[in-house]
């Protein structure tokens, strides 16, 4: 289980680096010309890290077997599903990860990952008034008759919200939750190490 805990820590460290990159570009007095590219790349990195941790804590294996497991027998596939579900439950318990965790939310993250599908849906339904990769504060952009869902991807730099077609999430809350999970993972790793050391010492009679 230590390897799963390590990965939680690794992903949290990556998210913090992306947040630092975002903040260093967004808070300078003279922002770079490619500020939007820097900010959206950083936020996408944060969302990707959250997605990796989500997969560790909440297993999404449905009844249909993914193609990468087609080489397994039915019995092996069922054993793997049960193992994954059990380790996810254990990790959630150890890290005190609840269903209201911002890391569990997938709406915005899926929109970034499946950007082509979201764009196809909007354009196929006849909405040609699309604004993409917007850095804004509430009320700073207004186009008459244009719904909020027409802003394809935007970052609210005042509230730390990232949104895709109306679905939004706080990337700052995601980073903070990943840091909390990482701290809990490190604490659990230390406890497991101490337990192993104590068991080994007891076994040798020292």
List its salient traits:
7% strand, alpha+beta, flat
Structural account:
A hairpin with a 2-residue loop joins strand 3 and strand 4. The chain is an alpha+beta fold and 206 residues long. It has a four-stranded mixed β-sheet. The protein is built from six helices and four strands, in the order αααααββββα. The model has no long low-confidence stretch (mean pLDDT 86).
Q: What's the tally of helices?
A: 6
Average pLDDT, to the nearest integer? 86
N-to-C SSE string, H for helix and E for strand: HHHHHEEEEH
Q: In what order do the strands lie side by side in the largest sheet?
A: 1-2-3-4
- Tell me how many strands there are: 4
- pLDDT below 50 for ≥5 consecutive residues: which ranges? none
């Amino acid at each position: 289980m230590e390897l799963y805990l390590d990965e939680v820590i690794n992903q949290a460290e990556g998210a913090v680096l992306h947040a630092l990159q975002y903040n260093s570009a967004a808070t300078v007095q003279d922002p770079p010309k490619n500020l939007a590219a820097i900010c959206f790349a950083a936020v996408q990195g944060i969302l990707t890290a959250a997605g990796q941790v989500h997969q560790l804590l909440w297993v999404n294996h449905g009844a249909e077997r993914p193609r990468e497991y087609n080489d397994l027998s039915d019995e092996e596939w069922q054993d793997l599903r049960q193992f994954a579900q059990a380790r996810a439950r254990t990790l959630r318990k150890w890290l005190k990860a609840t269903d209201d965790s911002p890391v569990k939310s997938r709406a915005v993250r899926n929109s970034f990952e499946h950007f082509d599908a979201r764009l196809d849906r909007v354009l196929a339904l006849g909405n040609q008034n699309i604004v993409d990769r917007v850095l804004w504060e509430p009320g700073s952009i207004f186009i008459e008759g244009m719904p909020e869902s027409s802003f394809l991807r935007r970052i609210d730099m005042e509230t730390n919200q990232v949104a895709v077609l109306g679905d939004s999430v706080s990337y700052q809350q995601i980073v903070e939750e990943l840091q909390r999970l990482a701290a809990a993972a490190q604490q659990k790793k230390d406890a497991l190490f101490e337990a192993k050391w104590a068991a080994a010492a007891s076994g040798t009679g020292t």
